[in-house]
């Protein structure tokens, strides 16, 4: 069923000149007829979408080619952004808005009887990411284009991307996300741009002279990386960059001799093995085969990216030694860390650069963004797997480590603990290559993604590196693209902001500050509340039509939308819902605030505890939503298959933003920024970017609870059993007893017994320790909601004070302090 139409902006884009709209209409009809082979009468919404996308793409290509040529002619330094994820979502509205074609498209399609909103819905949602990491990469690509920074994004063109989440009887099931079934009209296939990627084989030492031995890697298997390019349009269409995604192809797609002999399946075995690399985002790595595939994916796109940028650099500049002056490589998290060894291999083995010079070039070219403090997310690979799959790289990593540890030992003699801490090889439970360490050693700058996270990097996992390399670790607080997360997904609020702050708010996030004096104005509050209610009505219609559940748009929409993970503590939210449910039933005459708890998010396919939490949310929802004694004062909703498009519906409708991770575990978060920008108040711990949001919106406009990072560390040091916290809290004890006893799972009373037992015995994420503080904070939320003037003042001040969290600001900081590239226009677009 189609998604309900988002509210129209109060200040719609002006109509286009008749000749411009007519020209675009003619192009769309031409594409429909001659590219798709469809007539107007036979065309469906998807056909109209593809024809319109192709027509819009035509408007991009000339400036894309011209700007790319100009970059090389001017010798401008380019940024190469390597990310395993690019959660770009739907692009039609993004490109139309950035090109200033909103009115033109509407006027071109209206005489044809075509609704632009239906075309937006017809576009597949490119699920090439898992969540914040991939969405950040997409925001950064758009901001680099908006700021005129020449850039390439490099990633993988997954056939299926992240799985499609289907909920059956409350359980998550994963199905392929077939976003490419009908093609992708935004991309250009580049079969002529193909690079050979090697795996396995042997390394031979070839004597070149008495003083020199050259190492030659002879891979046992090769795969072709084929390029697909998508133009990324900046704001106002001033600049266009390239997102180049790689698709894996077998070198020999069909063994003809085997096929003719009757071995039809075996004849395709190499094709299947090769193409599995770009088949699926994040294949399960529970098995050794899954681990190998993940490593193959990471090396595949990293090597293709380096080969590609070196080829381009040599074609234009001729000398690879000038690479750091013309190229900045940014590693988005640890996935592409193998780039350090791969660039060194290219320099030493293929271009005969001496080791010291090659290492200097490598470090001056590469920088690394860390997104996590979780050791498992830093990635480490078993040495035997690396030696078998990437033998030459393993040799180089050993050499890097030897020189690195010699330098450390020279400055810190007799410090065995330090050597063990900073070694690239972990010697504990089986020898493993620490990819995070490799990225730190091989980069000239390493940044965290919020002030708290960057400080914790220096104090915890990279503390010794911070002491060894003072100044290398820095901070770049994340940001979001206001064009998508305000102007496009919330046109009603955008129109109100233009009315209140002037049209400059469309270009300058800092202009949001003009809203501050109006936040206490009753008339403005009414307009602000009306926009929010319209967005809530749209979301309520979606829930009613697609999930047969009626929710009240006048209730408080309490939203937690993010990847399902124990540290993000959806479990804490669900337990609080149970406690609130009990209180509403036991005190029916109390003035309760009507509330709708909205969850959305996917659990990793192998993360069984996260899947169980999803099931619990559904079990609680089934009981609560069907209980007439609650009188619609509480509803619990889990919206399946969370993606960018669903977020674009939920974010403008949210009243309360749940950012409740265990303090010290969320690197930054960007959902917190999107929700605050759209006028949602945050309930959260002092974690990630919540700290900086609190500083900007003010203590009175955010609801902070729970243990601090320092208190979490002390609590864990003293023991993480939750039994004592449970014993101190009547509400928590009763809620857990009901869950444990099967009140919410009568079909399987023992379903949650182990879950509750684990909270008593080993509550690492401190759900029980923070429960009472969280429950009390929620009651403060309810009290504020019952005072509309106070609530809407706080909501407006959230919007007014988060302009700093623009990804334009973040990218400008990267450009100035890490990449050393100029910004053609300032991040506030003045």
TrEMBL record:
It holds the Pfam family Phosphorylase. SUPFAM superfamilies: UDP-Glycosyltransferase/glycogen phosphorylase. Its EC number is 2.4.1.1. Keywords: Carbohydrate metabolism, Glycosyltransferase, Pyridoxal phosphate, Transferase. It is an enzyme of class 2 (transferase). Gene3D superfamilies: Glycogen Phosphorylase B. GO terms for molecular function: 1,4-alpha-oligoglucan phosphorylase activity. It catalyses: [(1->4)-alpha-D-glucosyl](n) + phosphate = [(1->4)-alpha-D-glucosyl](n-1) + alpha-D-glucose 1-phosphate. CDD domains: GT35_Glycogen_Phosphorylase. Signal peptide: none annotated. Its cofactor is pyridoxal 5'-phosphate. InterPro entries: Glycg_phsphrylas, Glyco_trans_35, Pyridoxal_P_attach_site. Belongs to the glycogen phosphorylase family. Allosteric enzyme that catalyzes the rate-limiting step in glycogen catabolism, the phosphorolytic cleavage of glycogen to produce glucose-1-phosphate, and plays a central role in maintaining cellular and organismal glucose homeostasis. Phosphorylase is an important allosteric enzyme in carbohydrate metabolism. Enzymes from different sources differ in their regulatory mechanisms and in their natural substrates. However, all known phosphorylases share catalytic and structural properties. This is Alpha-1,4 glucan phosphorylase.
């Amino acid at each position: 069923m189609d998604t309900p139409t988002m509210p129209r902006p109060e200040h719609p884009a002006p109509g286009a000149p008749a000749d411009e709209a007519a020209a675009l209409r003619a192009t769309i009809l031409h594409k429909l007829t001659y590219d798709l082979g469809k007539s107007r009468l036979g065309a469906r919404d998807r056909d109209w979408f593809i024809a319109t996308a192709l027509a819009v793409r035509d408007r991009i290509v000339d400036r894309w080619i011209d700007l790319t040529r100009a970059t090389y002619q001017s010798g401008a330094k380019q940024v190469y952004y390597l990310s395993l994820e690019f959660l770009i979502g739907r692009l039609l509205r993004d490109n139309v808005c950035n090109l200033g074609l909103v009115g033109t498209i509407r006027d071109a399609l209206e005489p044809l009887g075509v609704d632009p909103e239906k075309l937006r819905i017809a576009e597949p949602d490119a699920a090439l990411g898992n969540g914040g990491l991939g969405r950040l990469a997409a925001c950064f690509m758009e901001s680099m284009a908006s700021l005129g920074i020449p850039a390439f994004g490099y990633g993988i063109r997954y056939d299926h991307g992240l799985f499609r989440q289907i909920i059956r009887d409350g359980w998550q099931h994963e199905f392929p996300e077939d976003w490419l079934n009908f093609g992708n009209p935004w991309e250009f296939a580049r079969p002529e741009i193909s690079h050979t990627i090697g795996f396995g084989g042997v390394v031979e030492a070839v004597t070149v002279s008495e003083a020199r031995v050259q190492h030659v890697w002879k891979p046992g298997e090769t795969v072709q990386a084929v390029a697909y390019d998508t133009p990324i349009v900046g704001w106002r269409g001033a600049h266009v960059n390239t997102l180049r995604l790689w698709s894996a192809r077998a070198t020999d797609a069909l063994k003809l001799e085997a096929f003719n002999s009757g071995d039809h399946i075996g004849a395709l075995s190499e094709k299947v093995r090769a193409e599995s690399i770009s088949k699926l985002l994040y294949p399960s790595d529970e098995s050794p085969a899954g681990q190998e595939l993940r490593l193959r994916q990471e090396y595949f796109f990293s090597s293709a990216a380096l080969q590609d940028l070196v080829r381009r650099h040599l074609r234009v500049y001729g000398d690879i030694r000038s690479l750091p002056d013309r190229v900045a490589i940014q590693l988005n998290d640890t996935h592409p860390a193998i780039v350090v060894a791969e660039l060194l291999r290219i320099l030493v083995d293929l271009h005969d650069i001496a080791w010291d010079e090659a290492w200097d070039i490598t470090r001056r070219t590469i920088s690394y963004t860390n997104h996590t403090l979780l050791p498992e997310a830093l990635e480490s690979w078993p040495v035997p797997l690396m030696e078998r799959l990437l033998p030459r790289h393993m040799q180089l990593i050993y050499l890097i480590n030897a020189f690195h540890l010699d330098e450390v030992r020279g400055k810190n003699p007799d410090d065995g603990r330090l050597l063990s801490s900073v070694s690239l090889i972990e010697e504990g439970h089986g020898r493993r290559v620490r990819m995070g360490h490799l990225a730190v050693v091989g980069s000239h700058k390493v940044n965290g993604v919020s002030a708290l996270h960057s400080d914790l990097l220096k104090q915890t996992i990279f503390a010794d590196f911070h002491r060894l390399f003072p100044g290398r670790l820095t901070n770049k607080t994340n940001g979001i693209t206001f064009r998508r997360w305000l102007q496009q997904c919330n046109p009603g609020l955008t129109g109100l902001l233009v009315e209140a702050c002037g049209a400059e708010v469309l270009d300058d996030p800092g202009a949001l500050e003009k809203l501050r004096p109006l936040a206490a104005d009753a008339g403005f509050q009414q307009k602000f509340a009306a926009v929010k209610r319209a967005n809530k009505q749209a979301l309520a219609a979606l829930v009613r039509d697609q999930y047969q559940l009626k929710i009240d748009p006048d209730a408080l929409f309490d939203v937690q939308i993010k990847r399902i993970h124990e540290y993000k503590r959806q479990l804490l939210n669900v337990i609080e819902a149970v406690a609130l449910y009990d209180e509403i039933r036991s005190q029916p005459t109390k003035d309760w605030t009507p509330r709708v708890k909205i969850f959305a998010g996917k659990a990793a396919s192998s993360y069984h505890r996260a899947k169980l939490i999803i099931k619990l949310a559904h079990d609680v929802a089934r009981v609560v939503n069907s209980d007439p004694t609650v009188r619609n004062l509480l509803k619990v909703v889990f919206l399946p298959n969370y993606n960018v498009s669903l977020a674009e519906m939920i974010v403008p409708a949210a009243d309360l933003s749940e950012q409740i991770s265990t303090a010290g575990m969320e690197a930054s978060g960007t959902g917190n920024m999107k929700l605050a920008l759209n006028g949602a108040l945050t309930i959260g711990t002092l974690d990630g970017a919540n700290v900086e949001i609190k500083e900007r919106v003010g203590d009175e406009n955010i609801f902070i609870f729970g243990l601090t990072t320092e208190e979490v560390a002390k609590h864990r040091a003293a023991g993480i059993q939750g039994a004592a916290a449970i014993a101190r809290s009547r509400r928590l004890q009763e809620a857990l007893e009901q869950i444990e006893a099967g009140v919410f799972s009568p079909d399987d009373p023992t379903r949650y017994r182990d879950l509750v037992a684990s909270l008593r015995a080993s509550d690492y994420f401190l759900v029980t320790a923070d429960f009472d503080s969280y429950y009390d904070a929620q009651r403060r939320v309810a009290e504020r909601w019952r005072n509309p003037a106070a609530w809407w003042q706080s909501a407006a001040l959230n919007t007014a004070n988060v302009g700093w969290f623009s990804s334009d600001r973040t990218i400008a900081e990267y450009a100035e302090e890490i990449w050393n590239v100029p910004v053609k226009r300032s991040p506030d677009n003045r």
